[in-house]
Amino acid sequence: MATVTELKAVLKDTLEKRGVLGHLRARIRAEVFNALDDESEPPPPLSHENLLINELIREYLEFNKYKYTASVLMADLFYTGF
């Protein structure tokens, strides 16, 4: 019978292979930064050029398999109203 330590290791490996663990870490990191952000000052509206640049950056990150960085970017863009 498997021990609790072995089950934790298998679960961690499975979540890492599926990309879930990294996504959760990135989401938590983004939420920590959002909690520390000054909410009294709303973010400035994004111009069409900035929207295009943000999309290009997202595509670059996903193309190069920077899934965790892309998920942090998307969480931040979602927070700012992208």
Write the layout of secondary structure elements.
Blueprint: H1 4-18, H2 20-36, H3 48-63, H4 67-80
Domain FGFR1 oncogene partner (FOP) N-terminal dimerisation: 44-76
GO cellular component, one term: ciliary basal body
Main location: cytoplasm
What can you tell me about this protein's structure?
With 82 residues, the protein is an all-alpha fold. The protein is 76% helix and 0% strand. Helix 2 runs parallel beside helix 4 (67-80) and helix 3 (48-63) runs antiparallel to helix 4 (67-80). The longest helix is centred in the middle third of the chain and has 17 residues, at 20-36. It is elongated. It starts with a helix and ends with a helix.
Assess the beta-strand content as a share of residues: under 5%
Shape: elongated
Number of strands: 0
Estimated helix fraction: over 70%
Q: How many H/I helical runs?
A: 4
Output the radius of gyration.
17 Å
Contiguous runs where pLDDT drops below 50 for at least 5 residues: none
What's the pLDDT, averaged over the residues?
A: 85
SSE string, helix = H, strand = E? HHHH
Describe the sheet with the most strands.
Answer: none
Keywords: Cytoplasm, Cytoskeleton
Protein name: Centrosomal protein 20
Main location: cytoplasm
InterPro entries: FOP_dimerisation-dom_N
